[in-house]
Amino acid sequence: MAIVRVRQHVNPLSQKYQQSAVPPDWAQVYSDLSLPLHLDIGCGKGVFLLKIAQQQPNWNYLGLEIREPLVLEAQLRQKELGLTNLHYIFCNVNNSLRSLLTALPAGSLQRISIQFPDPWFKKRHQKRRVVQPDLVEELALHLAPGGLVFLQSDVKAVEEEMCDRFQEHPAFVRQSLDWLEVNPLAVPTEREQSTLLRGEPVYRAMFERR
Any idea which residues carry the catalytic annotation? Predict the structure, then answer.
Protein backbone atom coordinates (compact mmCIF):
# COMPACT_ATOMS: atom_id res chain seq x y z
CA MET A 1 0.00 0.00 0.00
CA ALA A 2 1.34 3.45 -0.89
CA ILE A 3 2.35 5.76 1.93
CA VAL A 4 -0.21 8.49 2.47
CA ARG A 5 1.30 11.88 3.28
CA VAL A 6 -1.00 14.27 5.09
CA ARG A 7 -0.68 17.45 7.05
CA GLN A 8 -0.01 16.84 10.73
CA HIS A 9 -2.24 19.71 11.83
CA VAL A 10 -5.75 20.34 10.53
CA ASN A 11 -7.70 23.35 11.78
CA PRO A 12 -11.18 22.08 12.75
CA LEU A 13 -12.50 25.66 12.78
CA SER A 14 -11.78 26.30 9.10
CA GLN A 15 -14.70 26.52 6.69
CA LYS A 16 -13.62 23.33 4.95
CA TYR A 17 -14.61 21.22 7.97
CA GLN A 18 -17.93 22.81 8.96
CA GLN A 19 -20.22 20.39 7.14
CA SER A 20 -21.64 17.71 9.43
CA ALA A 21 -21.12 14.08 8.48
CA VAL A 22 -24.18 12.13 7.35
CA PRO A 23 -24.77 9.02 9.50
CA PRO A 24 -24.54 5.73 7.62
CA ASP A 25 -27.09 2.95 7.93
CA TRP A 26 -25.55 1.41 11.03
CA ALA A 27 -27.36 -1.91 10.47
CA GLN A 28 -25.44 -2.19 7.18
CA VAL A 29 -22.14 -1.12 8.74
CA TYR A 30 -21.92 -3.67 11.56
CA SER A 31 -22.80 -7.34 11.23
CA ASP A 32 -24.16 -7.34 14.82
CA LEU A 33 -25.52 -3.96 15.88
CA SER A 34 -26.39 -5.31 19.33
CA LEU A 35 -22.72 -5.40 20.38
CA PRO A 36 -21.40 -2.62 22.64
CA LEU A 37 -19.70 0.22 20.79
CA HIS A 38 -16.22 1.67 21.40
CA LEU A 39 -15.74 5.15 19.92
CA ASP A 40 -12.19 6.35 19.20
CA ILE A 41 -12.06 10.11 18.62
CA GLY A 42 -9.16 11.21 16.44
CA CYS A 43 -8.25 7.70 15.35
CA GLY A 44 -5.46 8.80 12.97
CA LYS A 45 -4.37 5.89 10.76
CA GLY A 46 -6.75 3.60 12.64
CA VAL A 47 -4.06 1.06 13.57
CA PHE A 48 -5.13 0.91 17.22
CA LEU A 49 -8.72 0.12 16.23
CA LEU A 50 -7.61 -2.39 13.63
CA LYS A 51 -5.74 -4.36 16.29
CA ILE A 52 -8.30 -4.16 19.07
CA ALA A 53 -11.19 -5.02 16.73
CA GLN A 54 -9.44 -8.29 15.91
CA GLN A 55 -8.57 -9.05 19.52
CA GLN A 56 -12.02 -8.19 20.90
CA PRO A 57 -14.62 -9.28 18.33
CA ASN A 58 -17.39 -8.97 20.93
CA TRP A 59 -17.28 -5.17 20.51
CA ASN A 60 -18.07 -2.85 17.62
CA TYR A 61 -15.53 -0.11 16.92
CA LEU A 62 -15.94 3.32 15.36
CA GLY A 63 -13.06 5.66 14.51
CA LEU A 64 -13.58 9.33 13.73
CA GLU A 65 -10.80 11.32 12.06
CA ILE A 66 -10.61 14.77 10.46
CA ARG A 67 -7.78 13.93 8.00
CA GLU A 68 -9.56 12.25 5.10
CA PRO A 69 -6.52 10.52 3.50
CA LEU A 70 -5.89 8.65 6.75
CA VAL A 71 -9.52 7.51 6.87
CA LEU A 72 -9.38 6.24 3.29
CA GLU A 73 -6.23 4.29 4.08
CA ALA A 74 -7.77 2.85 7.24
CA GLN A 75 -10.91 1.82 5.37
CA LEU A 76 -8.80 -0.10 2.85
CA ARG A 77 -7.10 -2.05 5.64
CA GLN A 78 -10.43 -2.82 7.28
CA LYS A 79 -11.90 -4.12 4.03
CA GLU A 80 -8.83 -6.21 3.27
CA LEU A 81 -9.23 -7.97 6.61
CA GLY A 82 -13.00 -8.28 6.26
CA LEU A 83 -13.69 -6.88 9.72
CA THR A 84 -17.42 -6.37 10.20
CA ASN A 85 -17.12 -4.90 13.70
CA LEU A 86 -15.04 -1.89 12.61
CA HIS A 87 -15.85 1.33 10.77
CA TYR A 88 -14.09 4.63 10.11
CA ILE A 89 -15.65 7.98 9.26
CA PHE A 90 -14.02 11.16 7.96
CA CYS A 91 -15.53 14.07 9.88
CA ASN A 92 -15.02 16.99 12.21
CA VAL A 93 -16.11 15.41 15.48
CA ASN A 94 -17.09 18.76 16.98
CA ASN A 95 -19.95 19.25 14.53
CA SER A 96 -20.73 15.65 13.54
CA LEU A 97 -20.87 13.75 16.81
CA ARG A 98 -24.52 14.43 17.58
CA SER A 99 -25.88 13.27 14.23
CA LEU A 100 -23.69 10.16 14.19
CA LEU A 101 -24.48 9.02 17.73
CA THR A 102 -28.17 9.88 17.66
CA ALA A 103 -28.62 7.42 14.80
CA LEU A 104 -27.17 4.56 16.87
CA PRO A 105 -29.27 2.31 19.12
CA ALA A 106 -29.74 3.88 22.54
CA GLY A 107 -27.27 2.60 25.10
CA SER A 108 -24.91 1.07 22.55
CA LEU A 109 -22.06 3.51 23.16
CA GLN A 110 -20.21 2.03 26.14
CA ARG A 111 -16.57 3.05 25.74
CA ILE A 112 -14.73 6.11 24.40
CA SER A 113 -11.05 6.76 23.85
CA ILE A 114 -9.29 10.04 23.06
CA GLN A 115 -5.61 9.34 22.63
CA PHE A 116 -2.78 11.77 21.93
CA PRO A 117 -4.92 14.53 20.40
CA ASP A 118 -3.27 17.43 18.61
CA PRO A 119 -1.93 19.61 21.48
CA TRP A 120 -2.16 22.96 19.67
CA PHE A 121 0.51 24.45 21.90
CA LYS A 122 0.06 28.14 21.00
CA LYS A 123 -2.46 29.78 23.32
CA ARG A 124 -4.39 31.40 20.48
CA HIS A 125 -4.85 27.95 18.89
CA GLN A 126 -6.02 26.08 21.98
CA LYS A 127 -9.66 26.65 21.03
CA ARG A 128 -8.95 24.11 18.26
CA ARG A 129 -8.32 21.32 20.78
CA VAL A 130 -10.82 18.52 20.39
CA VAL A 131 -11.93 18.20 24.02
CA GLN A 132 -14.16 21.22 24.57
CA PRO A 133 -17.15 21.53 26.96
CA ASP A 134 -19.64 21.01 24.12
CA LEU A 135 -17.96 17.73 23.16
CA VAL A 136 -18.05 16.49 26.77
CA GLU A 137 -21.73 17.41 27.00
CA GLU A 138 -22.50 15.49 23.81
CA LEU A 139 -20.65 12.42 25.07
CA ALA A 140 -22.53 12.61 28.36
CA LEU A 141 -25.83 12.48 26.46
CA HIS A 142 -24.95 9.32 24.54
CA LEU A 143 -22.59 7.28 26.71
CA ALA A 144 -24.42 4.53 28.60
CA PRO A 145 -24.41 4.67 32.42
CA GLY A 146 -21.29 2.90 33.64
CA GLY A 147 -19.61 3.57 30.30
CA LEU A 148 -15.93 4.52 30.27
CA VAL A 149 -13.88 7.35 28.81
CA PHE A 150 -10.15 6.71 28.42
CA LEU A 151 -7.86 9.71 27.93
CA GLN A 152 -4.13 9.68 27.28
CA SER A 153 -1.45 12.05 26.05
CA ASP A 154 2.29 12.52 26.18
CA VAL A 155 1.74 16.23 26.91
CA LYS A 156 0.87 16.64 30.57
CA ALA A 157 -0.84 20.02 30.16
CA VAL A 158 -3.11 18.60 27.44
CA GLU A 159 -4.02 15.58 29.53
CA GLU A 160 -4.72 17.77 32.54
CA GLU A 161 -6.97 20.02 30.47
CA MET A 162 -8.91 17.03 29.09
CA CYS A 163 -9.34 15.67 32.62
CA ASP A 164 -10.52 19.08 33.84
CA ARG A 165 -13.17 19.20 31.11
CA PHE A 166 -14.61 15.84 32.15
CA GLN A 167 -14.31 16.52 35.88
CA GLU A 168 -16.25 19.75 35.43
CA HIS A 169 -19.21 17.81 34.03
CA PRO A 170 -21.51 16.24 36.66
CA ALA A 171 -22.08 13.11 34.55
CA PHE A 172 -18.48 11.94 34.85
CA VAL A 173 -16.35 10.72 37.73
CA ARG A 174 -12.63 9.99 37.54
CA GLN A 175 -11.78 6.47 38.63
CA SER A 176 -8.39 7.38 40.11
CA LEU A 177 -6.77 10.71 40.88
CA ASP A 178 -3.37 9.22 40.05
CA TRP A 179 -2.17 8.75 36.49
CA LEU A 180 -2.71 5.19 35.30
CA GLU A 181 0.61 3.41 34.96
CA VAL A 182 -0.70 0.84 32.48
CA ASN A 183 -2.97 1.23 29.48
CA PRO A 184 -6.19 -0.59 30.55
CA LEU A 185 -7.14 -1.24 26.92
CA ALA A 186 -4.02 -3.41 26.55
CA VAL A 187 -3.52 -2.28 22.93
CA PRO A 188 -1.07 0.62 22.59
CA THR A 189 -1.26 3.24 19.88
CA GLU A 190 1.75 3.87 17.65
CA ARG A 191 2.35 7.19 19.41
CA GLU A 192 2.19 5.50 22.78
CA GLN A 193 4.74 2.89 21.75
CA SER A 194 7.19 5.45 20.34
CA THR A 195 6.85 7.67 23.43
CA LEU A 196 7.57 4.81 25.81
CA LEU A 197 10.51 3.60 23.69
CA ARG A 198 12.07 7.05 24.13
CA GLY A 199 11.68 6.65 27.88
CA GLU A 200 9.19 9.51 28.08
CA PRO A 201 6.02 9.46 30.22
CA VAL A 202 2.46 8.87 29.04
CA TYR A 203 -0.33 10.42 31.12
CA ARG A 204 -3.51 8.34 31.35
CA ALA A 205 -6.87 8.68 33.08
CA MET A 206 -10.20 6.85 33.06
CA PHE A 207 -13.61 8.40 33.66
CA GLU A 208 -16.92 6.65 34.25
CA ARG A 209 -20.40 7.82 33.28
CA ARG A 210 -22.49 8.07 36.45
Answer: 118
